[in-house]
Each structure stands twice: as structure tokens, then as C-alpha cells.
Amino acid sequence: MFVYRLTRSKYAEDLSGFGAALSGGRWNKKGRAVLYCSESPALSLLEIVVNIPPMFQPDLKLLTIKIPDQKIFVLEKEKLPANWYHYPAPRILAEIAEEYYQKQEIIGIKVPSAVLHQQSNILINPKSNYFDEVKVLSNEPFIFDPRLYRRIH
């Protein structure tokens, strides 16, 4: 399976999940290292755009990563609480995901995107027994189209 990660250039070589562990997120508790990836480059972009202030154009890299898809657990929307996509994220989501991070034979969890419900994000567990099978296939500069920052008046 190929997944995509859009990240600041200075962190493009870091697959430790340390950044997510610092503050926690929708699908991880503070202290839990996780790599947030998406099933498409476009979804990776949307996930970044909803979290950055207007007119901020960070120096980003787009990583294409190969992971063993037979080691991915799929978390179905139907098994999530009705408010799973709300912002701020319900704390229960990180608790649900934690159960799967503790299973060392699972390299990641496929979860629905709160930004685009029809697509998924893949959360890679750097502590998995199979993390050595994660391979970065490309690491390319990503240039924002300035039209993404136009304000609607």
C-alpha cells in the first residue's frame, strides 16, 4: 500500500512520530508516537490546509511511503461515535486507536478523514514490530498554489 505524508521539510527525514507525541491528536494521545499519513496526496494537502493559518506557506515535502497493507487494521466509520468528525476531536478516538497501537503486529490503522469522510488516513505506529518494512519511496518538495489562500469575502 502506498500512503502519503505532507510535512515540513525539516521533519521529512523523521519517521519517529515524535511530533504527534508532543501534543496528541485526533487519533493519538499525548505521548503516543504516530505518523499521520493519507491515502492520497490531495487528502494530505487538505489535512494540512485545515490546520494552517491563511497566507502561511510552509516549506513542505511530500513523502510517498510504502507499507505492508496486510498489517493495517481498518477502523470502520460505523464503529465510531456519531461525533467522530467534530472539532475539537472527541477524546474517545485516541482511546479507541490506542488499543491498536499496543498490538505490535499491526503497523497502522486506516481511519476515515474528518476533512473528507469518503477518504481515509493511515496512522503508522513507529513502535510496531513491522516498522522496518516501512519504506520512503520519494521525498519531493511541495509547492502550494497561492489560490489555496484566497479569502472569501
Automatic annotation (TrEMBL):
> Do you know which SMART domains this protein is assigned to?
RES
Where would I find the RES domain in this sequence?
14-136
Q: Which InterPro entries match?
A: RES_dom
Where does the source fall among the domains of life? Bacteria
Tell me the protein's name.
RES family NAD+ phosphorylase
Q: Which organism is it from?
A: Shivajiella indica
High-level lineage: Bacteria, Pseudomonadati, Bacteroidota, Cytophagia, Cytophagales
